[in-house]
Design a protein that fits this description.
Distance between the termini: 96 Å
Largest sheet: 6 strands, antiparallel, barrel
Strand order of the largest sheet: 3-12-15-14-13-16
Shape: elongated
Structural class: alpha+beta
Number of domains: 5
Strand content: 25-35%
Number of strands: 24
CATH topology of the largest domain: conserved putative lor/sdh protein from methanococcus maripaludis s2 fold
Number of helices: 6
Radius of gyration: 54 Å
CATH class of the largest domain: Mainly Beta
Length: 430
């Protein structure tokens, strides 16, 4: 593409600055560099000296970089595992305890309620009727056959009277028929009556005798219905609840009108965990405590549930108790069942630790090294934790701060602090 030299020359001549045109046919000549006049500063140098903001920006970036490096070092150092006491220099000094064995009693406790051993509901067994009388109250002792309430029997009594009269009539007719049959048999040899007449009289006598039995059965049925208008106690016991009221309509198969505690026998009913259910046996002694009463009640395990509820993981248990006026059914109670009496090591709670593998203690072996020992805890007492398995009682068990030690780590055993130090940790020891 070409360029008009005349137009370019005119454009350059109109400008104040000296511009040299370089054409194709003219060699390149570098323009001489002119020094700035005295007193003038180059723009870049003037901007740097007059604006210190770049220095502050660079300093802030450097400070942020240093903070990031320090934070990274701290976070990286926090992920390292804790050093043991031995790694920090020196062998740790620990206090130990030789627990020995003590006479301990293992027990299982649970809560429940007092209940009648045989709670018998009593309802109306007869026809629908209105209650006309109630003879007992809740808490009254009753005897077997005693009338508790009475239902209106005015209709059934009349039926019984009618059937009694019908029975007398049937018996009279049967007696007459039997007499006529006997007379017919007496003249049978003389030929006064035909064989047909004799047979008819025999059939009449048999029919009348059967009618007596039918009327007697109807009378017995009516008498049974009449007896059911009397609601009686089936056993000796104590009336627990009374829902019968005078004027109430009692329907057969309806709600119980009375509840009777058979023989006054009471028991405690509760539920225990499945792991405790395996330790409890029928016949073991139990102590029951009632809310608001200081004295305990003694009993024995009478029954253990045959199944465990899959939802709650609990099983039923029943404790039989001696009858007592204070043992009212429905009362809240707490029971303690003694499951075992034996000699067991007892350790302070600080000596027993637990993790994902279970409970354990740290034992100092003959080589003065820490050794992990798995144990099974069967309960707690006022003096400490009962160890059922894992220890014999003669081991030197680390009493405190066992979590800072590692299995196999060498340690120093602190000397006893006093005469009673056999079961107490040395003061100031780790």
């Amino acid at each position: 593409m070409g360029t008009n030299p005349e137009q370019v020359k005119k454009a350059t001549e109109s400008q104040d600055e000296h511009v040299t045109w370089i054409g194709r046919d003219r060699p390149f000549e570098r323009a001489p560099v002119t020094e700035p006049p005295p007193g003038l500063t180059p723009p870049a140098l003037s901007f740097t000296r007059s604006s210190p903001r770049w220095l502050w920006t660079i300093g802030g970036i450097v400070a942020l970089a240093l903070i990031a490096v320090i934070a990274w070092r701290l976070m990286a150092g926090g992920t390292r595992p804790h050093d043991s006491l031995a790694d920090r220099g020196g062998i740790p000094l620990v206090s130990v305890i030789v627990p020995g064995q003590q006479a301990v009693t293992s027990s299982v406790s649970f809560t429940g309620a007092i209940a009648a051993r045989y709670d018998m509901p009593i309802a109306n067994e007869g026809d629908t009727g209105r209650i006309v009388a109630v003879y007992v109250e809740a808490g009254d002792p009753v005897k077997r056959g005693q009338v508790l309430a009475r239902i209106d029997d005015s209709v059934i009594v009349q039926q019984v009277n009618r059937l009694e009269a019908s029975l007398e009539q049937a018996r009279a007719q049967a007696a007459l028929s039997a007499a006529e049959y006997r007379r017919a048999q007496g003249v049978e040899a003389a030929g006064a009556l035909s064989a047909e007449d004799i047979e008819k009289r025999r059939a009449t006598a048999v029919t009348d005798a059967a009618n007596v039995k039918v009327v007697a059965a109807q009378l017995a049925e009516a008498q049974a219905r009449l007896a059911r208008t009397r609601i009686t106690a089936p056993v000796d016991g104590i009336v627990l609840t009374r829902k019968a009221e005078v004027g109430q309509i009692a329907n057969p198969g309806g709600d119980a009108l009375f509840r009777v505690e058979s023989g006054g026998e009471v028991e405690m009913r509760g539920q225990i965990a499945e792991q405790d259910l395996a330790q409890v046996k029928v016949g073991q002694a139990a102590t029951v405590y009632l809310t608001g009463l200081a004295r305990p009640f003694t009993g024995r395990v009478r029954l253990l549930g045959a199944i465990i509820d899959p939802a709650t993981r609990l099983g039923d248990i029943r404790i039989t108790l001696q009858p007592d006026p204070a043992l009212r059914p429905g009362a809240f109670a707490r029971a303690v069942v003694t499951v075992d009496k034996a000699q067991r090591p007892v350790l302070p709670q600080t000596a027993v630790m637990a993790d994902a593998n279970g409970s354990y203690v740290l034992v100092v072996n003959s080589g003065s090294r820490v050794e992990r020992r798995a144990v099974r805890v069967s309960g707690t007492t006022e003096t400490g934790v009962i160890v059922a398995e894992g220890l014999t009682g003669n081991e030197r068990v680390v009493a405190t701060a066992g979590g800072f030690l590692r299995d196999g780590e060498p340690v120093k055993v602190a000397p006893p602090a006093g005469p009673a130090a056999g079961n107490q940790p040395a003061p100031g020891a780790t």
